[in-house]
Design brief:
Rossmann fold; five-stranded antiparallel beta sheet; 2 domains; seven-stranded antiparallel beta sheet
Length: 416
C-alpha cells in the first residue's frame, strides 16, 4: 500500500474515532443533582444508601462524588446503584457495581470531585434509584453534604452492604453525602434546564420523600408531554443560599455568585438556567451587623447581571424568577425581636424594586413570574394562605404544584 494512502486511511480512522467519542460525550446529560452546601459530620466506617429520582432516562449511567468540604482525602470503598423499591430496599436483580478508572474503590482528594465510569443500565425517566456508598474507615474530617435532602438516607455501620437487596438500617439521615450528580447517556437531542437558587428551589416546606419540590413536579410535567421528554430538570437549590455572600448561620452554602459555574454552567447538557435568588439577601440585611450583608436592590440586581453575563458568555439561555412575598414571615420575626417593623417595610420595598427590574429590564432571556401566581391578591406582600407551608416563607405541596404549573412550556418549545 502506498505510504500516502496509508497515511490518509489512518487519519480518517483517527478522526472517525474522535467524532464518535465527541458525539457520545455530547449525549451525556445530568438527570439529577444536589448542590454541595455545607460541612457535614465526620462519618464512621459505614454504608450509606441514598435515594434519588431521575428527571430523564438513558441507556447508561454515571455518578459524581464530591469532597468539596473535606479537609483530608476520603476513601470510598465501593459504590453500587440499583432501582429503588421502598424505604431502604432495592428491586431484586437491579443492582450494578460502579467503578472509577476501572477500580471498585476511589480516593477523593480534598476539595475535589470524581466521576464514575459509565455502567450500562436502562434508567427510566422519573425513576427512583438507590446509590449505596461504603466507607471502609472513618472520614477523619468533615463530610461533604447537601443539608436538606427531604429524602431519607439509610446507614449500616462497619459493614459493606452496598449490594444488599434488603438493607437493615441502624441509623437514618435527612442529608445527602458526597453524591452530587447522576448523569445518563440519553438521546442526541437531550437538553437540561438547571433550576438555580435558594430553599424555595430546594423544596423546603414540601413533604419529605414525596419528590414534591417544584422542579420535581416540572420534570413530571415535561415527561407527561411527548414534546418535552428529552429535557432534564435538575435542582441546584440550596436552602438558605445567598446570591451575594457566602452563608453564615442561619444561611448556608457558597454564594450564588461563587458556585454558579460548578452548580449551573458546567452541568452536562445545560442549555437553560432559571435563577430564583435574592430573598435571603434581603432577609440577611436585618440579621447581621456586618455591612456586607446590608444589601440594596441595586446590589442584588448587579449580582443578577453578573450571572446573566456569565451564562451568555457560554451561550446558555438564562431566565429570571420573581421573588416570592415573605412579609408575614418578617412579622413573625418582629414579634421575636429578630427584626424591626421598619426593616420589615424596607424588605418589601427592596423585593418590589428587584421584581420590577426582573420583569421590565429585559436583561433575562425570559421571566417566570412566580410572585404573581403565589401572592395573596388582597395582601400582595404575603403568600396566599392556601399555598403557605405555615412559616409564611416557603410554599407547601400545593404551592409548589402551582409553581410547576405556572412555568410556561413555550419557553422550552421555542428553543428546543
Amino acid at each position: 500500500m502506498p505510504k500516502c494512502i496509508a497515511t490518509v486511511l489512518l487519519f480518517c480512522l483517527f478522526t472517525s474515532v474522535i467524532s464518535v467519542h465527541s458525539a457520545t460525550d455530547d449525549r451525556w446529560v445530568v438527570s439529577w443533582t444536589a448542590a454541595p452546601d455545607t460541612y457535614g459530620p465526620p462519618l464512621k466506617a459505614q454504608t450509606i444508601r441514598q435515594v434519588i429520582q431521575t428527571s430523564i432516562g438513558g441507556s447508561s449511567l454515571r455518578i459524581r462524588l464530591s469532597n468539596l468540604f473535606g479537609t483530608v482525602p476520603v476513601l470510598i470503598g465501593s459504590v453500587h446503584v440499583a432501582l429503588h423499591e421502598n424505604n431502604s430496599t432495592i428491586q431484586p436483580d437491579s443492582d450494578h457495581a460502579l467503578t472509577f478508572d476501572g477500580k471498585s474503590s476511589v480516593t477523593i482528594a480534598k476539595g475535589k470531585s470524581v466521576l464514575s465510569d459509565p455502567v450500562t443500565m436502562e434508567v427510566p425517566a422519573l425513576q427512583e434509584l438507590a446509590v449505596s456508598l461504603y466507607l471502609p474507615r472513618p472520614t477523619e474530617g468533615p463530610s461533604t453534604t447537601h443539608d436538606i435532602a427531604l429524602q431519607t438516607a439509610y446507614v449500616t455501620l462497619n459493614r459493606d452492604t452496598t449490594k444488599a437487596t434488603s438493607f437493615t438500617a441502624g441509623k437514618t439521615y435527612d442529608s445527602r453525602f458526597f453524591l452530587t450528580d447522576v448523569e445518563v447517556l440519553s438521546s442526541p437531542n437531550s437538553r437540561v434546564i438547571v433550576i438555580f437558587g435558594d430553599s424555595i428551589v430546594d423544596g423546603e416546606g414540601s413533604t419529605e420523600g414525596w419528590n414534591a419540590r417544584w422542579p420535581d413536579l416540572l420534570a413530571a410535567r415535561l415527561q407527561n408531554n411527548p414534546a418535552f421528554r428529552s429535557i432534564a430538570v435538575v435542582n441546584s437549590g440550596i436552602s438558605g443560599n445567598l446570591l451575594l455572600n457566602d452563608g453564615k448561620e442561619p444561611f448556608i452554602g457558597p454564594s450564588g455568585l461563587s458556585r454558579f459555574d460548578r452548580d449551573a454552567l458546567n452541568k452536562s447538557g445545560a442549555h437553560w438556567i432559571l435563577i430564583e435568588e435574592g430573598i435571603n439577601d434581603i432577609r440577611a440585611s436585618s440579621m447581621f451587623t456586618n455591612p456586607k450583608y446590608h444589601v440594596s436592590s441595586l446590589k442584588i440586581i448587579d449580582g443578577m447581571k453578573k450571572l446573566i453575563a456569565r451564562a451568555h458568555k457560554k451561550n446558555i439561555k438564562i431566565w429570571g424568577a420573581t421573588i416570592l412575598p415573605f412579609m408575614s414571615y418578617n412579622k413573625m420575626l418582629s414579634r421575636q425581636n429578630v427584626i424591626s417593623g421598619k426593616r420589615d417595610k424596607n424588605h418589601e420595598k427592596i423585593r418590589q424594586l428587584v421584581n420590577t427590574w426582573i420583569r421590565e429590564a429585559g436583561a433575562f432571556d425570559a421571566v417566570v413570574d412566580f410572585d404573581q401566581v403565589m401572592r395573596d391578591p388582597t395582601h400582595q406582600e404575603r403568600l396566599l394562605p392556601d399555598f403557605d407551608s405555615g412559616d409564611h416563607l416557603h410554599p407547601n405541596d400545593i404551592g409548589y404544584a402551582v409553581m410547576a404549573a405556572a412555568f410556561d412550556l413555550h419557553l422550552l418549545a421555542q428553543d428546543n
